[in-house]
Amino acid sequence: MTQYHPLTEQEAIEYARTIPGLFKSGAALSSREIGDGNLNLVFHISDSETGTSIILKQALPYAKVVGESWPLSLDRARIESEALQIEGALCPDLVPRVYKYDADLALTVMEDLSDHIIMRKGLIERRVYPEFAGHIGRFLAHTLFFTSDLGMNQQDKKLRLAQFINPDLCKITEDLIFNHPYTDADTNSFDAAIRDEVEAIWSDSELHLEVARLRHGFLTHAQALLHGDLHTGSIFVTETSTKVIDPEFAYYGPMGFDIGAVIANLLLNFAGQEGWSPDAESRSKYREYLLQTAKDVWTTFEAEFRSLWNDSGIDRISRTEGFQSIYVEQLMRDTIGYAGCKIVRRVIGLAHVSDIDTIPDAASKERAQRLALSIGKALIKHHRNAVSFDELIEIATKFAR
Q1: Residue 177 lies in a domain
Q2: C-alpha–C-alpha distance, residues 124 and 131, integer Å
């Protein structure tokens, strides 16, 4: 079974039997293919007798959403496995355990998180996660700081940067987030009801200039090892636990891209409450929770990041008085700008979010889409002038009135 080919469910079961220390010899194992993404097969392997279960994630050599005409490198499976292991060393409670990586099959065997729920689903159901902001703020601070020039030897960082060159998946980001939504691209997908707003975005040269600046940062600013796709569909949660999954887009880029991705997805659900909240009062209350969570993510990140800088920074010149504040203020501006880009692409571009797309009432869905685009555009245009993260909260609140 060493030559690459997409596994069948039976082959996945047989492979699981070879992992030492997981299943009893002769155990009656069952398999379900549970992947709902565009790039991978995901098998849930379980032993009903003991309750033991694992996940086998296998990269496909193409994007499922398009087919074999969109080829992708299988090396992303290595990148994902190695990123998970780095993240696990820094935040062991916040990522799934990796049991094995098989380069020949582009396969990662990891901890099963079936006792958690995908956060996007939980937010659509209007659940509250009181520990999430603290957890994800700490995850962002530790994974970004300790993979940057601030927290690791600069020459070692250059070698690690080479380890995480990820051209295929970076190309997806470069096109689908920073290019195609701003022109009449074949990959775009949007409802006819909002075509007027989409066409206005296509002709908005002020907006395009700011997106060009942000895209340039994504292309050139190799600050830290990013997760690269840190949305609420890549986070498992319970009320007391948070687990970050799927870092196959990992590469060295601007820190604000990861932070902005988390914030953007909270704001997409904020917009989606047009269709999920049963009345104005409950909508207002849940939106307050989402905005407070967004603010808490940033404040936790900032406090943790500054603490790591002060206590664990290895670069003498970076300790120059005033530099830390300049650096963090720019991170905040980047976060706001990248959050805006992430919001816009999820309404206009190829891959949407169920927070908005599955709203059953057409009028409510259109309101959510227009609200999301208004917030996204405003964040992009304002990001370089922001002096406080509270300005993001103010923008979202203003457009939701």
Answers
A1: yes
A2: 18
In this prediction, residue 63 carries a pLDDT of 75
Closest CA to 240 of 81, 88, 127, 89: 127
Domain count, the chain: 2
Q: How confident is the model at residue 1 (pLDDT cuts 50, 70, 90)?
A: low
Nearest to 266 by CA among 283, 288, 289, 290: 290
Which tokens go with 212?
Answer: 């060009």
User: Measured between alpha carbons, how far is 270 from 397 in angstroms, rounded to an integer?
Assistant: 10
Residue closest to 392 by CA, chosen among 270, 227, 235, 226: 270
CA dist 142 and 140 (Å) reads 6
Question: Stretch 360-386: mean pLDDT, rounded?
Answer: 98
216 and 315 both lie in a single domain: yes
Grouping H, G, I as helix, E, B as strand and the rest as coil, residue 65 is coil
- Residue where one domain finishes, among candidates 77, 111, 145: 111
Nearest to 138 by CA among 379, 251, 306: 306
Query: d(Cα 253, Cα 218) in Å, to the nearest integer?
Result: 6
3-class secondary structure for 158-180? HHHHHHCCCHHHHHHHHHHCCCH
> Which one-letter amino acid corresponds to residue 289?
Y
What is the reported pLDDT for 68? 66
Q: What is the CATH number of the domain that holds 183?
A: 3.90.1200.10
**Whole-angstrom Cα distance, residue 201 to residue 321?**
42
Kindly tell me the burial class for residue 148, based on how many C-beta atoms sit within 10 Å of its own C-beta (0-12, 13-18, 19 or more).
Answer: buried
Q: What pTM value is reported for the model?
A: 0.96
Q: Provide the domain limits for residue 357.
A: 117-400
Alpha carbons 186 and 344: distance in angstroms, whole number: 16
Same domain? For 105 and 148 the reply is no
For the record, the structure tokens of 316 come out as 């003498």
Is residue 2 in some structural domain?
Answer: no
Rounded Cα gap, residues 313 and 172, in angstroms = 33
Residue pointed to by tokens 């691209």: 185
| 107 and 152 together in one domain | no
Q: Tell me, rounded to whole angstroms, the distance of Cα 255 from its chain centroid.
A: 12
In a domain, 390, yes or no: yes
